[in-house]
């Protein structure tokens, strides 16, 4: 029963599908966390159960199942189970393959952690975007966070943005990300504005000003405005957290992106302007 329930034939297709979908639609570590946690628990208990069976001379779990559980996302659970239960630690297959599975999963996490950070600047037709909140390439201090663990500098006022009306556009979406911090999302809002987003018009649910930590130098903040055919209000974006930009743009693209404008403003810890 155990071997049927946790066999590779049952688990591998689900794991492969989730992994491929995660990479294809922006690749995120968060998308794999529930499966990885489940598989690590399964692997841990499989090694514990097999150790119990070995001690009591009962029917054993096939070694292929134990190893497969490690490569299907349960590498950490398998390694902990080996060490804690002192099980399979003398067999070269397990001493080599289980740590190898751990290494492969570390590489996968690193790979997925970097996915979605790239921004294709030529993906959409361009529109002109301007901001009086950016002076000499730098964001005004009033745009910085009013309260932060680093230093309370600004007034948490969202930057002013201006653009020319795009024919056919019924809605616009505005985004600000910190390119120096894995596209940390500082602003996401949408509406049926025509050509302007006023300064200090957004609440804390849609805008969190920059607060770069000390010692990290200047951060580059990229602001985008998207001209859309359809209402994007159903898009959910995690504010004040790393942003999977590729996936966010894919969701906006489903709303019919007609054009995109961008502008960059820098801000560093201790800036006052």
Secondary-structure element string: HHHHHEEEEEEEEHE
3D shape: elongated
Percentage of residues in strands: 15-25%
Mean pLDDT: 83
Total domain count: 2
The CATH superfamily of the largest domain bears the name PEBP-like
The appropriate CATH architecture of the largest domain is Alpha-Beta Complex
pLDDT < 50 stretches: 1-18, 20-27
Account of the 3D structure:
The protein has 273 residues and is α+β, with helices and mostly antiparallel strands. It contains 6 helices and 9 strands. The strands form 3 sheets. Strands 6-5-8-9 form a 4-stranded antiparallel β-sheet, with no helix packed on it. The protein has a 3-stranded antiparallel β-sheet with strand order 1-4-7, with no helix packed on it. Strands 2-3 form a two-stranded antiparallel sheet. A hairpin with a 2-residue loop joins strand 2 and strand 3 (138-139). Helix 2 runs antiparallel to helix 3 (29-55) and helix 3 (29-55) packs across helix 4. The relative contact order is 0.14.
Overview in brief:
The protein is 38% helix and 18% strand. With 273 residues, it is of the alpha+beta class.
Topology:
Elements: H1 2-5, H2 8-24, H3 29-55, H4 63-85, H5 92-114, E1 129-130, E2 134-135, E3 138-139, E4 161-163, E5 171-178, E6 184-191, E7 196-197, E8 218-228, H6 245-253, E9 257-268
Antiparallel strand pairs: 1-4, 2-3, 4-7, 5-6, 5-8, 8-9
